[in-house]
Protein: Helix-turn-helix transcriptional regulator
Amino acid sequence: MPVLHGRIHELEPGPGMQLVASDIEVLQRYDSRSHRPAPLSIIVMLEGHAQITLGSERLDFAAGTALSVRLSEHEGLQAVQPPNQRIRALTLALDAPRLADALGGKLPMPGSSMHAWSLPPGLQLLLEQALSSPLSGVASRLQWEGLSLQLLAHGLPPGFVATTARLSPGEWQRLERVREQLQASPDQTYSLPALAELASMSPATLRRKFQAAYGCSVFDYLRERRLELARQMLLQGHGVERASQFAGYKHANNFTAAFRQRYGYPPSSQYRPA
Structure:
């Protein structure tokens, strides 16, 4: 019995870029796993949903959202597509030279990670138009190259770009100690002096070197992690107050303001009762 049927169309928007458009009907549950290392892939879900797992992280990948993924050779991305649904998705993959060129010669941080974000309505409309009314020849390539660069611009997560600053192996290790703590427990209350003690640095040094290493401040990184966590809880059916508390926000109003500023809409619009 077939598991799925539909069509997959491959495009090459530019050198070092591959874009795959999928339009499939899932007849039976379909599990997949990506083993290939990738410096950056951006997956856009236009219709349908799937459950995505990378290491200990798990999220519900729904229509209107996108996922920026960096994969090392040691960790694969797992996806479960539930049955009886149509999935329309785009996957943009960049090889290392093309990505380095787009980032001005810089390279991504090592390791695996995934970053979920909301697709801007205007960009989603342009993608839908390009799929439903495709251009031909050179015009098509230019159209998709422009859209691919827009996806890249929106999809670069905080801390993605590796630093050009000189950091010793010991400094990297101590900074990673802080980053991993924020990643693992974003719901905790943190202070710069306490994090500096964890890194065996002064607060001023931690502030400066974390920014240089990860491209954002300590608390910008923490806020992004908290909002990502809360958004996934909302998609899983948790209420706004529960999601805000679980993500470390003491006041739902503060959470609502931060969520709206980050994603452009209130958290109540993401709430889907289980």
Notes: The mean pLDDT is 85.
